Structures are given as C-alpha cells and as structure tokens.
Amino acid sequence: MLRQVIFSFVVFCLPVAGFAAGEVTEFRLDNGMDVVVIEDHRSPAVVHMVWYRVGAADEQPGQSGIAHFLEHLMFKGTDDLADGEFSDIVEANGGSDNAFTSWDYTGYFQRVASDRLGLMMEMEADRMRDLIITEDQVRTERSVILEERAQRLDSSPGGLFSEQMRAALFLNHPYNTSIIGWRHEMESLSLEDALAFYELYYAPNNAVLIVAGDVEPNDVRALAEQHYGPLAPSEGISLRERPAEPPHTTNRRIIFEDERVANPYVSRLLLAPVREPGDQAEAAAVTLLANILGGSDFTAVLSRQLQVEEGRSLFAGVYYNGTSYDPDTFTLVNVPVPGVTLEEAEADLDRVISEFLETGIDPEQFARVQFQLSAQQIYAQDDVQGLARDYGAALTSGLSVADVQAWPDILASTTIEDVMNVARRILAETPSVTGYLTRPAEESQEVIQ
Amino acid sequence: MIMSRVAALLTAAVFALPAWAIDIEEVTSPGGIQAWLVQDDSIPFVAVEIWFRGGTSVDPEGKRGAVNLMVGLLEEGSGDLDAHGFATATEELAASFGFSAYRDSVVISAQMLTENRDAAVDLLRAAIIAPRFDADALERVRAQVLAGIEGDAQDPDEIAGATFNAMAFGGHPYATAGEGTTESVSALTQDDMFAAHQASFALDRVSVAAAGDITADELGALVDHLLADLPVVGATLPGPAPYLLEGGTTVVEFPTPQSIALFGHQGIERDDPDFFAAFVLNQILGGSGFRSRLMQAVRVDRGLTYGIYSYLALSDYAPMMMGQFSSSNDLVAEAVDLTRAQWADVAENGVTDAELAAAIRYMTGAYPLRFDGNDTIANIMAAMQSDQMPASYIEERNSYIEAVTQDDIRRVATRLLQPDRLNFVVVGQPQGLMTGN
Fold first, then answer.
1. Do the Cβ atoms of B44 and B114 come closer than 8 Å?
2. Which residue in chain A is spatially nearest to B292 when comparing CA positions?
3. pLDDT at position A21, please?
C-alpha cells in the first residue's frame, strides 16, 4: 500500500536541481588554459585544482609509472621554492594539498581559505614550468613509489588479481598497465624520463584549472590571467591517440592463486563504451544497466537473486565508470558463499544474466533507478570538491562542460529499450575475460582447470 | 620574487582568517530530546546524524558481535516491510540511510530530500524502533559477517590491530574485535538481536544533529517521531580499560612482501588540561601532511614508506597515542629504529619554535575548512555532543590551540611520549626484527 503511494509520487515528481550551490562558469585563457569555476558560498573555503590532460595511458612503452612518479616529484623544488616548501606554505596557511594520477589525467589540488587562492595559483603556476629536481630526490622518491606499489598492489591479492585481469583484457591499449607501473620498469625510471614527460605535457594549453567554492568568477578570471596567463604554451602536444584495441574475438580465462585469499571470487571483465563528446547516450544506457544489475544490495538483479533469494552469494555486483578517454572496463563480480565453488559461482552469474536478457527490466525498478540518479544531483551539491573532481575527470577525458551538464538529462531520457539493446550487446555478444581469485589448489576443495 | 610575498602572508595568517561562524541552534523537541541544528536551505535536503554511546562494547559476555550483527540487520526489514520492501521504499524516496557499529557508539546517518522527507522519516523510524530480525535476513547477514571475520584474519592491518588490542586491554571489550569471532557470531540468535537492540538504543545515550533544509520546529517533531518511543535507559556502559602492554616489539609472521607496523602507548584524555598541547605535539611528530617529523625522517629523507602517521586515539575507555606505517620487509627494521629515535628526540628535546608556530598556523587555519557541507557539519555536531562538548567549543577551539606554548609542549612531551613503553606490532616477514622487549 505504502509502496503504491510513494511510487506514483516518484513518477510525477522528478527532482529538479537548483543552483543555489554549484553554479558553473567556464572560460579559456589566451594561452589555451581552460578554466571552470564552481560557486558554493556556504563556507569561506576554496578548492584549487590544476588537471593535466596526461596520465598513465600516455606514457612511452617501457616507462610505465612515469606519470605517477612525476606527480610525486612535483612536490620537490622549483626555481623559487625549496624542496617540500610548496606543501609547507599550503599547511602554514591552514590548507591541505595533494595530487592524484589516473590513466587519463594527473591532478594537483589545494584546499584553503578562499582569500588564499592567489597564493595557490602563484605557486601552482610556478611549478607548471619551473620544476627543478635532483638525482638524490629521484632516488629517494623512487623508493617511495615502490613502497606505494607494495602497499596498494603487492600486499593485496585482490589488487594483483585486478592488475592481471586488466593486462589480459586490453590486448593493445595502454589501459592494460597499472597506473603505478610495473615494478621492473619503475625501478629504472630516471630524472631524464621525468623531465622529458614534464616538459612536453605540463603547460597551460594542456591543463584545466578548476576553482570551486566561495569565489566570484570575475575574481578568478583576474587571478588566473595574472598567474597562469604569462605561461608559454607547449609546442609539442599532439592529439591523444593511444594504440587502439583490435576487435576482441575470443573469451579468455585467468586463474590467480594466492594463499592470502580469504573469500575466493569470480570476476568478469569486458570492454564497454564510455561517454563521448556530444554523444553520451550509449554510456548512459550502460550506466543504467550497471545500476539495474548491481546498484543495490537488495533490489538489483544480481544481488536480489543471488544474495537475497537464493543465498548463494556473499556479494554479487557490477563496476562501471563511464568517464574515460577511450573505451574502458565493465566488470561483473560474484563472491559465492562458502561451499559454492567458483565454477558454480560462474554458472550462477551466467544463469542470472541470461534470464535477465530474456525477461528484461522491471519498469518499477527502472523508474527507481532513474529517480535516484536524478536525486544524486541534489546530494552532489553538498560536496563541492566532489563536483570539482567530476568536472576535472570529464574535461580531461575529452568531454566539455556542456557534456557534463547534459548528462543528467541524457540519463533521464534513456529508455528501457535503450538499456536492453546495450545489455544484449555487452552481455551476450562481447567476448570477455573471466578470472578466478582463489587459494592454491592444496587448500581449496577442487583443482580449477 | 615569490618568497617575499609568501613571508608576508605567513605572518598575517593567524590574524587574517576570514570572518567565520557556524550558527548552531540548540533545539529541544516537544518530547524533551536535545538536538543541534545548522539550518541552510540552499540545497533541498537534510543530513541527520544520530549517535548512541555504547557501541560494540556493550556486548554481553559470550555474545561478542551481537551489536555489530544487530546494526547490520536494521535495514534488512522492519515494521511491515521485509528487507527487499525496505530497500525498495528507500530507493523510491532516493533517501540514504547508514547504520554503523563502532566500539564506543552506534551511528545512524541519514540524508533525506525535502520533497519527501516525511515518508523517509517513517522508514527510518521503522528501522530504529521496529526492526524484525527475520530468520532469513539474520542468516544472510551472519554469513556476510563471518566472511568479513575470515577476511580480517588474512588482512595484515586487521591482524596488527587485533594483536595489539589483545595484548593491551586484558578482559575489557576493547581487547577483542567488535565483529566477534566465528564461534560467537555463529551462536547468536534472534533473541540476542532483540536484546542487543534494547541495550544499544536508549534515550540516556543519544545525540542528535541535523544540517540542511529543515526548521527548528520541523526538527523537533522529526526527533520525537524517530526516537521518543525508545527505552529511557540502555545497557550499562563498560568502565575504563586496563593497559597491560610494556614496551617492545611483537612480530606476527605473515606471507607478504611489505610489513605493517602498528605502534603506540597510552595517550591522554580530551578533558586533560594538557590535551591541546598534546594535540599540537602530535601534529608536529606525526600529524597529517608532509611536514611531520616522522614523515620527514622515514619517507622524505629515506624513502622507506609511502606514509607514516601518529594520532591521539580518543576512545572512551582507553585514550591512546598510536601510529602506523608499511615498509618492505627488508626496510621495516630501519623504519622502526627511525620512528623510535624521533619519539625519543621529541620526548627529550621538544620541538623548535618554528615547528610549533607552523603547527599552530596549520591547525587553526584548517579547522574552519572542516565545516564544508551538511553531512560533515551534522557529523561533527553529533560527535561533539556525544563527547559532552558545548556548542561554543567551535568558536573557542582555535584559541586553545593558539595558547599552547613551548613550556606546555616540553611538559607534555616528557609526560606523554614514552619511547621505552612504545610497543611495535609488526605483521609480515620483517628482516632483522624479532619479538622482544
């Protein structure tokens, strides 16, 4: 009874995002630097981010990890600042700063009181062109990134398994290599490698400035012109064309054994479309498909059937992130309850998917998922740093501000038929890599062939 | 060029913080329940945070894991809805409810759209007041908890924490994991769930905070509707934990290329007169950012770790000063030595004037930046009430930090930092480290 009443309410009252917080302004400096300002006047803070349109997928063969290594070295000195002084000054102003590297982008950010924005720009502009690093710093910091790799990947069976799965899925595209790099290549990354990468890619015409918080767009423009405006663009930046994937023609399998595995699972990886500039409809359908199959512990197709109704899985879900420069992964995971083998868990996954392709989508579930996605626009305004990251990731993945702003409407106008069309293509026709993460044979019940 | 401007800004920093205030309204509901409110209607939703003191530490003897499992079942069916019905109704409202059990508290976090708030509150009320603990949901969540316990047994971080706690806290609940053991969780019954529910949710231990699009009157009515039917008194809270650990090193063999080191000794209570001096001291020794002594010595200068931190752990019954890092098996012994050396150096020699000034600038400047969204503001306000801190603390807090002097730091460094009592639990295959005092 209650459900009926609420449901009709949902259908007729899709929430409309206001712009009390989150108003967006964009412009471009003469030297090619793109600027996005997101206003949020609720607290006197600002997030200042510079995103470079370069990441791990843009590295030269044999230099995996150089994008991330350079990110670390950017905290060393410049012609104006001593080693570590950048972070010291941020902290002395009550701010925090950090950086991140992905396959498609490298980003640097500080969070400070909004009246410190000019100082942050002054320092960030300084290290965009005037980085100075020494052999000693390279040696010590290389040890730090090797420790980071040990912490994130080598100490984690799940991390190592995912690395192998990606390496198997991508036959040709550099998305096949971990962002942090292969250990044997990281060990020989040099000062010259880092500087060559820096000099080519770190320039205003390859950067996106995002300022989010208690600021006025005109003030940001004046400060950006003052600090970033004088920087010379880089001449050597070409179109980002990575080696493309050939057609995937066959299913492949991985068996990864590690004695530290507590809960074995099966994972399936395949190549899926992503948001393209001016053409996000397909990625919207995949996003909805991911939510329908795996977006909720109780009501999504996989978890409802395998976790709740049959009790055969501890967790069954989907991972998909449609913001990427080139086509990227769609992942299905099934963690069976003890006593169910990985072969059976794989068969369960196949069975539920094939039933789904036959029966289609429950219209009530579809309406709920769409309503939740649109409500996310409201909740997202509470986290201006999160909004800034969304814009940064989109703009360095080839999308425009207009694409980001059109995305909610595209999600809302996607139909069940659109989703089923893409579901049939992805789930029934796309070859995939299926992997088992398990304990070594002598400890598991069955040897997996 | 840049340097002179920077220097000028540094001297101005302490005095030039932007005008800033958080306007907290202390609301008393018609039913007499206190709640703190920061009203802001710029985004049409409200974040509500409800904390119950007690947490997994109120588990009765032999029922370890009862509170944790009970909290995991709150969204698995209540009132006339089963697990699926509850999830469906929540999704139809695009509301979001979180239920978490910690060792000192159970925390409920809710985000609700203004346009359907009444219906969302009805659902949340059912989860808090009338959970069903259906047999099938109990078995499903029990299986998830047991899998988590098994996963923890293979996780070096969890092994380190469990080893430290077991050695440190004797027979106190802090000595064991709140998730319970395979044996204790396997034996829990539906009756145990109802008992844990009665023990955990009561009006004598609740703190409520809300931030966002709601008025004081609306919040008063909401709080009464959600909570007024709870029992007045809950389970007896545990007393202070003993601290039994001497200084030394404890190695736990585990097959991994990188060892985890967890270290610590007793800390300081929040109401201690020297608390703020200790807070600033910790920032200098191992606080956030890149400039701490430990980060400089172990990461920046030597490259032995990706990150090293120390922190004041303000648990209700055993205040601790703890720290943690990971280093490859062949480097961890050197990192442990460097950590002990920094601990001893600061205990003996204190910190420089420049370090003290920089820490105070950072801590006072960073504090206002925390209050940056409805979710975080509600969370901070509920935590403050749970710790019996007054609303005025937010305005006064920076003055306590600024008042810390070199004399305070020297006094608290001598008292708090005890290099000889520092115990390292190292999980991995560390070279050159053995268990011993």
1. yes
2. A88
3. 55
Instruction: State in Å, rounded, how far the first CA of chain A is from the last one.
Output: 51
Q: Mark whether B360 and B260 lie in a shared domain.
A: yes
Nearest chain B residue to A97 by CA: give it: B289
Whether residue B393 is found in the same domain as residue B284: yes
* CATH code, residues A23-227: 3.30.830.10
Find, among B14, B132, B13, B7, the residue nearest to B73 by Cα: B132
Considering the segment(s) A252-438 as one domain, its CATH architecture is: 2-Layer Sandwich (3.30)
Range of the structural domain that residue B320 is part of: 248-428
For B55-77, what is the mean pLDDT?
96
A382 and chain B in contact, CB less than 8 A: yes
Label residues A365-391 b or e (16+ Cβ within 10 Å = b).
bbbbbbbbbbbbbbbbbbbbbebbbbb
List the Cα angle A378/B227/B372 in 5-degree steps. 35
Task: Verify that B203 and B286 share a domain, yes or no.
Answer: no
Longest dimension (CA), chain B: 72
Q: Is B385 found in the same domain as B310?
A: yes
Enumerate the domain spans of chain A: 23-227, 252-438
> Do B44 and B118 reside in the same domain of the chain?
yes
Which tokens hold the place of B317? 């019954």
Which of A9, A115, A263 lies at the smallest CB-CB distance from B116? A9
User: Where does a domain end: B168, B197, B227?
Assistant: B227
What is the C-alpha to C-alpha distance for residues B227 and B214, in angstroms, rounded to an integer? 17
Identity of the residue in A88, A141, A338 whose CB atom sits nearest the CB atom of B291? A88
Name the DSSP letter for residue B222.
Answer: H
Overall average pLDDT of the A318-343 stretch: 97
What is the arithmetic mean of pLDDT over A300-314? 95
- Indicate whether B8 belongs to any domain: no
Residues 398-437 of A with CB under 8 A from B: none
For the stretch A201-224, pLDDT in tens is 999 999 999 999 999 999 999 999
Sign of CA dihedral B32, B33, B38, B40: negative
The answer to whether residue B113 is domain-embedded is yes
Active site residues of A: 71
Contact B180, B58 (CB under 8 A): no
DSSP B240: P
Q: Are residues B254 and B217 in the same domain?
A: no
How is residue A395 written in tokens? 């703009």
What is d(CA A443, CA A426) in angstroms, rounded to the nearest whole number?
35
Average pLDDT of chain A is 92
Task: Tell me, yes or no, if the two domains A23-227 and A252-438 fold the same way.
Answer: yes
Chains A & B: contacts with CB separation below 8 Å = 233
Residue A16 CA: distances (Å) to CA of A12, A317, A391, B285: 12, 29, 20, 48
Domain count, chain B: 2
What ipTM does the predicted assembly reach?
Answer: 0.89
Q: Which residues of A touch B154 (CB under 8 A)?
A: 260-262
The answer to whether A79 contacts chain B (CB < 8 Å) is no
Residues B145 and B274 reside in one and the same domain:
no
pLDDT of residue B290: 83
User: Residue A200 has which token pair?
Assistant: 């080519």
CB-nearest to B300 from A84, A93, A151 is: A84
Decide if A150 and B111 are in contact by the 8 Å CB cutoff.
no
Mark whether B170 and B316 lie in a shared domain: no
Final residue belonging to a domain, choices B197, B227, B257: B227
Answer whether A435's CB lies under 8 Å from A164's CB: yes
CATH code at B398?
3.30.830.10
pTM for this predicted structure: 0.92
Closest chain B residue to the Cα of A10, Cα to Cα: B92
